[in-house]
Amino acid sequence: MTTEKPSTPDRRGFLKTAVGTVAGLAVGGVVGYVAGTGAQAPTPGQATATVTVTETGSVTGPGPTGPGFWTKSNDETFVFCAIHPVVNTDPHQCLEVLDNETALQAYDPLVVMGEKGVKPHLCVAWDMSGDGLVYTFYARDDVMFHDGSKMTADDIAYSFQRALTVDMNPVTWFRDAMGSTMDERVGNVKVLTASTVQLSLVKTFGPFVSTLPLTYIVSKKTVEMNIKRPGAKVNYKNSLNGDMGDWANEWLINNDAGSGPYRLKQRVWGDKDVYEAFPEYWGGWRPDSFRNLIYQSVPDPAQMKLMMQQGKAHMNDMWYPLDVQLLTAEDPSIKLYERQDYGPLYMNLNCQKPPLDDVNVRKAIAYAFNYDSMLNDILLGRESLQLGPFPNTLWGHDDTLDIPRYDVAKAKEYLAKAKYKPSEIKVTAAYVTGLTQEQRIALLLKANLAEIGIDCTPQEMTWNNIEGKTSQKDPRDSLDMVEIYFTNQYPDPDAWAIIFWSQLWKTGPSFISASYYENPKYDDLFVKARYEVDQGKRIEMYKEMQQILVQDQPALWLYNMQQRHAMRKDIYGYHFVPPAVQSYSKRYSVLSKYPL
Amino acid sequence: MKYRDYLLRRLVLVIPTVFGVITLIFVISRIIPGDPARLALGPWAKPEQVQEFRHVLGLDKPIVVQYFDYIIGLFKGDFGLSLTTKRNVLNDLLDFAPASLELVTTGMALAVVIGIPIGVIAGTHKDKWPDHVTRIFALSGVSIPQFWAGIILQLIFAYGLSLVAPNGRLDINLLPPKHITGMYTIDSLLTGNWETLRSSINHLILPAFALSLASISEFARMTRSSLVEELGKDHVLAARVNRIPEFLVVYKYALKSSFTPIMTLIGLDYGFLLGNAFLIEMVFLWPGLARYGVNAIIDKDFNSMMGVTLVIGIGFVFVNLIIDLLYGYVDPRVRLRAK
Hints:
The structure holds 2 protein chains of 2 kinds.
Chain A: H1 9-35, E1 52-53, E2 59-60, E3 77-82, H2 97-106, E4 108-109, E5 111-114, E6 117-120, E7 123-128, E8 134-139, H3 153-166, H4 171-178, H5 182-187, E9 189-193, E10 196-200, E11 216-217, H6 220-225, E12 237-238, E13 242-243, H7 249-252, E14 262-268, E15 272-277, E16 292-297, H8 301-309, E17 315-316, H9 322-328, E18 334-349, H10 359-368, H11 371-378, E19 384-385, H12 408-417, E20 426-432, H13 436-451, E21 455-461, H14 463-470, E22 481-485, H15 493-497, H16 502-507, H17 520-530, H18 535-552, E23 555-568
Parallel strand pairs in A: 3-16, 3-17, 20-21, 20-22
Antiparallel strand pairs in A: 1-2, 4-11, 5-6, 7-8, 8-10, 9-10, 12-13, 14-15, 15-16, 18-22, 18-23, 19-23
Helix pairs in contact in A: 8-9, 10-12, 17-18
Chain B: H1 3-31, H2 36-41, H3 47-57, H4 63-75, H5 89-124, H6 129-143, H7 146-160, H8 184-191, H9 194-231, H10 234-241, H11 246-257, H12 259-276, H13 278-283, H14 289-298, H15 302-330, H16 332-338
């Protein structure tokens, strides 16, 4: 038997050592290269110039061409942590709160919400005719779109025609006042002169101007250039504009056609939306504004907290859980910004479905619930109790309402009057997956109702399942009770009164009408108040409507959500003006790392 | 049967497998409760608007017609409209799938490069301290939840030591490289964009490693047990008796022969991770297919659900096909049997 002589250990050992050394050096080199240079030292900021930022986000002082504007220190990026990614950047399809926030960066509306009501923005003023049916808007003459074209009345009219044809939120708030068909509505948008636009209504609509801040003005020139006709998935047409193909929808979900302070630079789908400053913005700039703006999707609250604390993000979304917000703000470099918003949370009670079709059962539930425990133990004292059906600080709110508070004896009294025995009353309380406050409130309700012998089962559901169930035409197929925040509204009592208008669920049920409430007197008052233009008369009608709602108890009025953001302490300029969804304070061109 | 025929047969079998998966998901997506058209249009949409949109989506057609329309659309590149992004689902997949492929492929590569040598060490030092240490490591790897491991790694290596990036795919101030494959590392390399390459690798290391932990443990244990079995065989004894260096005995004779089950595991893990990297994608803000798929389910975006399933299904099938092909290379008996 012969054997091969093995390689000598010396040569093998040398080869092993050589290969190992080279591999080690290579790995070390790669690690060193990849680790990079780490965080860069901050650029020293310039001294702030004297500027004034108005409540609607305009700046007076050094403007786009003024001295001191756009120095090196502007080359900074503001990062906003959003709990979910931006969905749609087509300005006339913004259904989500965050979509509206991002639209506010790139687009301007005709009017905006100020502290004390609606203010002109792309217009300098507007008139209402004596009969309340014709609104004439006088456009600014100094607005430039991102494509370099100057805004005229034609762009404004075109934008409204497009919005009315696309026919999604928020146009749905006022479309019925402009006509019963799309062609009629579009036809009621007229250009009178190069700087005058007229919107005509077919019936008076008290909240009309309040519903306009989310209808954004687009550049007609840019939109027309990017319309897709053959091959469009959805085709838009009307008698005035004709067949408009997709009306540039496919292009607008990746680009912008606006006039706002920022332009959409890139969408990294599901991750972040990147905006860069538009220096020629007509509203002006602070000299130390952020050049870049990033909406970063951070669905995990723990990640958000780390990013904020490490300075990799500057501000977060209001939708993060309260306890995470408070934990985040414990860091010495972070502050918590809180202000009352128009954001009530209701526990809607299905008034058409047994056993909640009995007002005594609804009243019993309302008196059995421990509101103080909710406020102190769940909400940690950081919110305020909802004092009736309309937001506490909204004009038209009735401060004299006798709303239920925790009273077990009274609850049992109502239960004794009910047509159902306590043992027959089994209800579910649905809440949205992931919203911990809602979950805890449902659990508290379960415990409280057990005290009066009612069986309540908290039910966790995804948002789409809640929408599905509450869209049932037959109320008996819908949910018993469901917690809903009503934040995506315009700042007029009509926006909350409509929730309890029976025509809403009779014509097209959704989560908005989850209480399936019906009261002919209420319905009559609602319609009258809606089409009344005298503010004083409207207030009286709304007060009466609130009294009716408190009597009939179609929902538990739980709490009013604060607008709450954790923010780096070195971010200045933020001033929130309710309501959240329309708030011009969400325009981040007024923010800076330096105080004014 | 020739080896070539064997391969062709495997390729042909891919088609009914993929169709079966698509059909199953199609049926499931249609029976989940909720109206996707209503969800997409929002609560203020009128019933006639919802009805018109249902018509645009084809939801008013009989389900069999919808199914065939969908299959025909696939061949034309029309994967349907995503109700959340409002784009052709194919465009979404071209954005999200490469991100997951990059993450999972890197994770698998790390698992192979780390797990197999660990298994070899354990297998060649059976019942000695290296074996015990690797056993503890392997057990930890499969027991520790991925998301927890991910967060701990972030805290230590990213936020603590600042060695790597904590999350995302690129530095916040960098834009993605020109889209060629969608994988930032490869696209940066192909376009010579070194800054983006550096940043993309920096961001990839931690999530890929976190993702690979369980696989490292599995590969280590499988390698160890296969190797131990192989090292006990007569041919290994014969090699040692003939004074063949231990290095060659282990790597050339024993490991190669015991590699088949490890390759099976690689194939299975790869397919699994492609669709189940959700928690890692969440923790590391990685905009991948798993996150997109979960959001599609929550939003009842049925076209997106089917698109994701299609990609994962095809990916799984092709990875295992490659594994089957590699069997022939690693184990000559497979080729000889086929011949």
